[in-house]
Write a structure and sequence with these properties.
- By secondary structure, the chain is an alpha+beta fold.
- It has a single domain (5-194), classed as Jelly Rolls.
- It has helices at residues 32-43, 53-66, 68-72, and strands at residues 5-8, 14-17, 83-89, 96-103, 111-112, 118-124, 126-135, 143-152, 157-160, 165-171, 176-183, 191-194, 199-202.
- The radius of gyration is 17 Å and the shape is globular.
Length: 203
Amino acid sequence: MKGRDWFVNGDGHYEACQSVRVWDLLRENYRLYRFLTEMEDVLKDVEDESSRLPEIRMLVRRLILNSYWVQSQYLEPRSQTGTSVLLLYDELGFPFTVQTVTFSPGAKSTIHTHGTWGVVAVLKGQERNTFWRRILTADSKEKIERTGELTLFPGDIISFSADTIHSIEAIGDEPIVTFNVYGETCAQKRVEFDPMTHMARNF
């Protein structure tokens, strides 16, 4: 599953990142517990966890390349919402969360931040990411403007800083399935935006 690596910052600027060669990532019996242990080692005693995004992207790529089990762990999207989330690992005191997310064709997210760093790998389908940035205004309203968009395909990995603003949409005829890793969320920084009313709220 060859793909591209991307990083998006809080200003809505995205850039392609160097990817590790696939043959350097091949492992026998590489399982989720090894990934979790290696992630813990990468993040140990790190003050700015987002500085380790290149290593985290590499570990995510290694996992999805070698683990058929991870690629098969997802739920069908719910008919009411068009989305589903399957939590693969979330332990009290552990510094990150691992899950798969499914979007039905045509389903869209709100415009939001995650309040933490994140790394998302596309396993199936096509995902359109639209990026935004805040605009400083005299009336202090939460105005945002679109800065660009990027369509991700299976094998692509995208990473975010805690203040990255984006929205996603499932395009094409099949659901999107993604493998997601997030750091510990700062609730005050996890925000969704309404570009019409220029309002933002925690969610």
